[in-house]
Amino acid sequence: MNTIELKAPYLVFLGDAEDLIMAKVAKGIAHWRPEKCLAQMRLPEAKAKLDLPDMTPQQASDAGAKTFVLGLAPIGGTLPTEWIAILIEAMEAGLDIASGLHQKLADIPELVEASKRTGQKLLDVRVPKGDMVCGTGLPRSGKRLLAVGTDCCVGKMFTTLAIHQEMIKQGMKATFRATGQTGILIEGSGVPVDAVVSDFIAGMVEQLSPSNEPDHWDVIEGQGALGHPAYAGVSLGLLHGSQADVIIVCHEAGREQMDLMEGYPVPDLQYVIDMNIMMGKLTNPNIKLGGISLNTSNLSEDEALTTIAHLEKRFGVPVVDPVRTGVKPIVDRLETYDA
Amino acid sequence: MNTIELKAPYLVFLGDAEDLIMAKVAKGIAHWRPEKCLAQMRLPEAKAKLDLPDMTPQQASDAGAKTFVLGLAPIGGTLPTEWIAILIEAMEAGLDIASGLHQKLADIPELVEASKRTGQKLLDVRVPKGDMVCGTGLPRSGKRLLAVGTDCCVGKMFTTLAIHQEMIKQGMKATFRATGQTGILIEGSGVPVDAVVSDFIAGMVEQLSPSNEPDHWDVIEGQGALGHPAYAGVSLGLLHGSQADVIIVCHEAGREQMDLMEGYPVPDLQYVIDMNIMMGKLTNPNIKLGGISLNTSNLSEDEALTTIAHLEKRFGVPVVDPVRTGVKPIVDRLETYDA
């Protein structure tokens, strides 16, 4: 197995988070995978809370929890030293530890020692696991949907989680395939593709979304953007490896400059669509645009609906805001595509 | 510094190589950088030889050599155990060790111990060095030429080494920028981009080809191919990070199937040109096709010259075979491009 796998259910750790923005990983897991969340653990100073019972590691373990998930990103991405004892306590109670922090659990000697002593795993979800493999480009059975973006941070993860949820609701066969640390912690499995050595991106995405039943959908979280000057290589490997049947273009309404990229305007939607279709055809000649997912949080309701209607007319595909309208129109349209 | 740097001159090790195909790294260094080669070292059973004096590590060190370069790729990419003593002897004589083998020198405890004891470096040129950085996309002064391919193994390294050599011959300011292990061993510096974590490809290529004098050319070795189902992510990061002013498309005449890629024909030259120009425009809107480098080793002289003439007419740029015709027409044409 080259995918990272977390055992459920979880004890979700909120640390000293002041709110659920600081604990956005915890919030995401509780929102998208409530069935995997057994309990929360909060430090006395925490103000953030989830709708879950509070438990200690031992209580959670006794109740069946398998993994202690760090549900927040402390400033700087390092683990506060005073939390080390908590993580050791969790391992001693029989829980694995999962973390998406920049600082690796495996680089903290006390945790490594406790892991060896207790037999519990340290799961750094930013670190790719298993043998790296090169892409083959060989076709696989089953269908695949990939989120692509006009920029980073435009809602690709949210869009694919929502599409997956809608598919399940409609009784379709579907699996969410996480490609980033937050997605992996939410789903409990995945491959952190931006941390994969560049020779192996496409190959690892092939492994992440293997052959499946003809009517099964892999809903693959996107990363970066093909038009991004720093990260396009990641996005292209993901596009080629996923052999997407359908792409959903994600965009934030009103964003004009690329995030943190001086001198780079957000490219036009038509350009982003054309570029992804052209490049994606290499490994799947039948790749199609399946819809546009628009983050309209900066717009009023009227503006949002007008913009959505305008884009639907312009591109001839369903246009949604996953939060405002839901993604049902995109999923409904998928049935019209041939396998 | 994020580039790997080898100190010259070298003692080039040919091991037990039967011929210069087995010792192609050694052959490449001696051909392209003869001024860096002080001597060769050959085992008694070696049949391959370079036009260099034979020396022991101690003799080479006494004569001024700084680095012992493994000039061959043993089958399987691992270091024969009987060579470990030779490498230790070389370090004891005051030489660093440079290797492009898959097996890392740094994973062989005896070598690590000897390195610590002697203070000589183990340089695994497949391992990226220094802090990894993300791309900025910011423009840099100076000019850059990048080799791109219709497939892997079509002569990108040879083409760029030849273009760099011709530039120097013509008195131009130019630096060869190596991006793969053989190129790094030949040039003595570079970044192994296919071993860089995918988030950092573009950024590391920016570092490899920094701002320079306005009339200075960085001649950047290409990797993979934008139309390759396994490695296109590497090629795109390289294209974006290099901000190429000029691309040279490399192709092997007559190759119809991509190397090792079942079901993938070699794409048409026009498609490869269009794709690279379109994607490259993101970080350099003035990117141009500067020529085509054709490996015609499978063709007769007549066939080769006819094919070259045909492609020149079709694409309106210089078409060369670096071996058969030399690359002068490409370099001569570069002067007509604006900075």
UniProtKB/TrEMBL annotation, chains A, B:
Residues 140-331 form the D-glutamate N-acetyltransferase-like C-terminal domain. Residues 49-128 form the D-glutamate N-acetyltransferase-like N-terminal domain. InterPro entries: DgcN-like, DgcN-like_C, DgcN-like_N, P-loop_NTPase. Gene3D superfamilies: NAD(P)-binding Rossmann-like Domain, P-loop containing nucleotide triphosphate hydrolases. Pfam families: DUF1611, DUF1611_N. This is Putative NAD-dependent epimerase/dehydratase family protein. It comes from Marinomonas communis.
